[in-house]
Amino acid sequence: MATMTTMISSLPSTSAFQLPTSTPSPTTLALINPTSTTISYNRRKPNKTKNLLIRASSRMIEKETAETHRPDTFLRESDGGSSNQDVGTNSVRARFEKMIREAQDSVCAAIEAADGGGKFKEDVWSRPGGGGGISRVLQDGAVWEKAGVNVSVVYGVMPPEAYRAAKPANSAENGNFKPEPVPFFAAGISSVLHPKNPFAPTLHFNYRYFETDAPKDAPGAPRQWWFGGGTDLTPAYIFEEDVKHFHSVQKAACDKFDPSFYPRFKKWCDDYFYIKHRDERRGLGGIFFDDLNDYDQEMLLSFATECANSVVDAYIPIIERRKDLPFTDQNKAWQQLRRGRYVEFNLVYDRGTTFGLKTGGRIESILVSLPLTARWEYDHKPEEGSEEWKLLDACINPKEWI
């Protein structure tokens, strides 16, 4: 792998690191400080800026340590870890970690039950600077070709230039904000589930929480928090009852909090999972949101919890209907072509994946979203009016399913 100095030196004069608004793996969260932040590299001052990026990147890619036992919490004691229950203003951190770990357990249990024999392999890891994660993967099961469900809790330091780029208005309003690194906290759950049967859809979901803390010697610095995430469906074939069921569950989760959420986040999902060079969407959408902090924090924590808890109800009934349907070699070949599109989006456009690869972290977790198999055919075009054509048309022209 190229050194960090080599990778940064090769950047063009006006390039930038754009940190992701969607992360397929919470381990990727650990690598990239998930903040929608941009760090610009200016050739006029190459040494100072390059050194900043090298130092910042070295902090971001601190290597994980494998653990033999799953801890009760990955939080620092001051955030509710160990025996300290007086977490004060950081209580959202403790409750969010509890939520994502419970969601991981419930989703994995449902996946194993539907598979009827496959079991998740679990890897537990920690980081010297605090935090850690649990990566679970079920591979070559009866139903799933590959299913990954990962959680992470991460502590790190964000350079002040990155913070200013992320929240310029807030930085400008605080004259006491000093050029010191800004501590951050990030936690998330992320999953991609690839079934074997071409009539059973792939599912992706991701929910995360992010905070920055004021530096100790800069009491006037702003402290920020935000939520992000979503759940989306990627079938190879359209069964309208399945897609309507999936979107209905997403809408029901949203409507419990704000009737504007579903139409807003549905469009956001269609716009984000867009393969520009194909002029088509990766799948049939769902909901997606990021940098969400313009509502009450407790409400958004409850909303993220509701969304994560709705995954099983949205997806498993579809799997039960489709996992045993007979299929042909042609059906399987089309599924492989659509998985090729999945790979293209994740490796070319998903900012979490691409930045994680550039900063050299835990490769198994970064690429857990990719299927075991995929296919590319030269100039493939489905016959107009065919079931394959109908799927492609829906990916090119997003529909309102409910």
Write up what this structure looks like.
With 402 residues, the protein is α+β, with helices and mostly antiparallel strands. The protein has a single domain, classed as Coproporphyrinogen III oxidase, aerobic (oxygen-dependent coproporphyrinogen oxidase, 3-Layer(aba) Sandwich), CATH 3.40.1500.10. 40% of the residues lie in helices and 21% in strands. It is built from 14 helices and twelve strands. The strands form three sheets. The chain has an eight-stranded antiparallel beta sheet, sandwiched between helices. Strands 1-2 form a two-stranded antiparallel sheet. Strands 10-11 form a two-stranded antiparallel sheet. A hairpin with a 4-residue loop joins strand 5 and strand 6. Helix 11 packs across helix 12. The longest helix is centred in the first third of the chain and has 25 residues. The protein is globular and about 65 Å long. The termini are far apart. InterPro entries: Coprogen_oxidase_aer (IPR001260), Coprogen_oxidase_aer_sf (IPR036406), Coprogen_oxidase_CS (IPR018375). Keywords: Chlorophyll biosynthesis, Chloroplast, Heme biosynthesis, Oxidoreductase, Plastid, Porphyrin biosynthesis, Transit peptide. One of its GO terms (biological process) is chlorophyll biosynthetic process. Pfam families: Coprogen_oxidas (PF01218). Belongs to the aerobic coproporphyrinogen-III oxidase family.
CATH topology: oxygen-dependent coproporphyrinogen oxidase
Tell me the fraction of residues in β-strands, as a range: 15-25%
Number of domains: 1
SSE ordering: HEHEHEHEEEHHEEEHHEEEHHHHHH
Strand order within the widest beta sheet: 3-4-5-6-7-8-9-12
Shape: globular
Low-confidence stretches: 1-59, 83-89
Provide the gyration radius in Å. 21 Å
- What's the overall average pLDDT, rounded? 81
Q: How many β-strands, per DSSP?
A: 12
Helicity range of the residues? 40-55%
Class by SSE composition: alpha+beta
Main sheet?
8 strands, antiparallel
Biased composition (Polar residues): 1-19
Biased composition (Basic and acidic residues): 63-79
Family: Belongs to the aerobic coproporphyrinogen-III oxidase family.
Catalytic activity: coproporphyrinogen III + O2 + 2 H(+) = protoporphyrinogen IX + 2 CO2 + 2 H2O
